[in-house]
TrEMBL record:
Pfam families (UniProt xref): SCPU
Source organism phylogeny: Bacteria, Pseudomonadati, Pseudomonadota, Gammaproteobacteria, Pseudomonadales
Keywords in alphabetical order: Signal
Key word Signal present: yes
KW Signal (keyword) present: yes
Signal peptide, first to last residue: 1-21
Domain of life where this protein originates: Bacteria
Record-given protein name: Spore coat U domain-containing protein
Domain Spore coat protein U/FanG: residue ranges: 19-155, 181-317
Organism, scientific name: Pseudomonas maumuensis
Length: 322
């Protein structure tokens, strides 16, 4: 009797090797708001970000994070803001993504594994190392002096997650670690002014002697603590040291603008300018929010011949120098 023996071939299907997604604490990238004028700092939210807040992961994180997986970031100091050269403070808020949906409370551990933030940041896919960014937005209302504003934060990361999945969603290993890095935040405030300048109207008169004196004022609201001067240029048609208005027929009517109620010409160079300490209302350095008022008077020169009847105009530029 012939006996045939058959061998049984046993096969074992192995799961592919997991992608190990090890994370590490790395040096941060500074967050800089750039240079912003004082008016915008006070009235408008400014945004900045750091492309690296101190955590970098190599490889692909798991697309399914369980309730046992965490990526905690604790940012200190617990209170503070950007401090400038005179002690003024610009407050700002930290966020986990580029929106206002995930604010980070200082001194409290924030879990980036929750709420799909890691998905939004793109850390769940791709083979290249990726860092966790962080976002910042200033709070409006900061009336501050010009200068460089800075703060150094400490970002303490702590992570614990399943870094590899086998058959049946069995965790093959966990990546557990922690580390702290400093993050520098800065914003430079530049000087700025808000200016209100009414037009000057001499009305009408049949002869030059018939034009009256116009008494008016202009207001300037400049950066807190700023000392400045205000100048008026010579207009578009100056001649012989006098400002002139011009008609469409190229005839001229000479006039000038004088400081306060006096006869000293208000100009744009040297002593002809007016300093912030010379204001009639709120003299001194700028306050950032309050206006400083400068009085002036304007007159048509009466020692000139009366030009032909027409409408005469000129344009004078006001400038502020710090």
């Amino acid at each position: 009797m012939n006996v045939r023996r058959y061998g049984l071939l046993f096969g074992l299907l192995l799961a592919p090797c997991p992608a190990w997604a090890l994370c590490s604490s790395v040096a941060t990238t500074p967050a800089a708001f750039g240079t912003v004028n004082s008016t915008l700092v006070r009235t408008t939210v400014q945004a900045a970000s750091s492309s690296n807040s101190g955590l970098q992961c190599t490889g692909s994180l798991l697309s399914l994070l369980s309730s046992n997986d965490h990526f905690y970031a604790t940012i200190t100091p617990a209170s503070g803001g950007l401090v400038g050269p005179t002690g003024d403070v610009i407050n700002y808020t930290l966020y986990a993504d580029n929106s206002v949906n995930y604010p980070i409370t200082r001194g409290v551990a924030f879990d980036f594994a929750r709420n799909g933030i890691l998905d939004l940041l793109g850390l769940l896919n791709g083979p290249t190392p990726k860092a966790v960014p962080i976002y910042l937005r200033t709070q409006i209302g900061s009336n501050v002096a010009a200068g460089l504003y800075q703060e150094t934060l400490t970002v303490a990361w702590s992570w614990n997650y399943c870094s590899g999945i086998g058959i049946g969603n069995i965790c093959l290993g966990r990546d557990i670690g922690s580390g702290s890095k400093t993050l520098n935040v800065s914003l430079t405030v530049s000087n700025d002014c808000q200016i209100t300048t009414p037009n000057i109207s001499f009305a009408s008169a049949p002869v030059v002697a018939g034009f009256g004196t116009v008494n008016q004022s202009l207001s300037v609201s400049c950066t807190k603590g700023s000392n400045y001067t205000v100048g008026l240029d010579d207009g578009q048609n100056v001649s012989g040291g006098r400002r002139r208005m011009k008609s469409t027929a190229n005839n001229y009517l000479a006039y000038d603008i004088f400081k306060s109620a006096g006869v000293v010409r208000w100009g744009s160079v040297g002593a002809a300018r007016r300093s912030s300490s010379d204001a009639e209302v709120n003299p001194g350095a700028g306050t950032g929010t309050g206006s400083q008022v400068f009085n002036y008077n304007a007159k048509v020169y009466t020692d000139q011949a009366t030009p032909p009847a027409a409408t005469y105009t000129d344009s004078v530029i006001l400038d502020v120098q710090f």
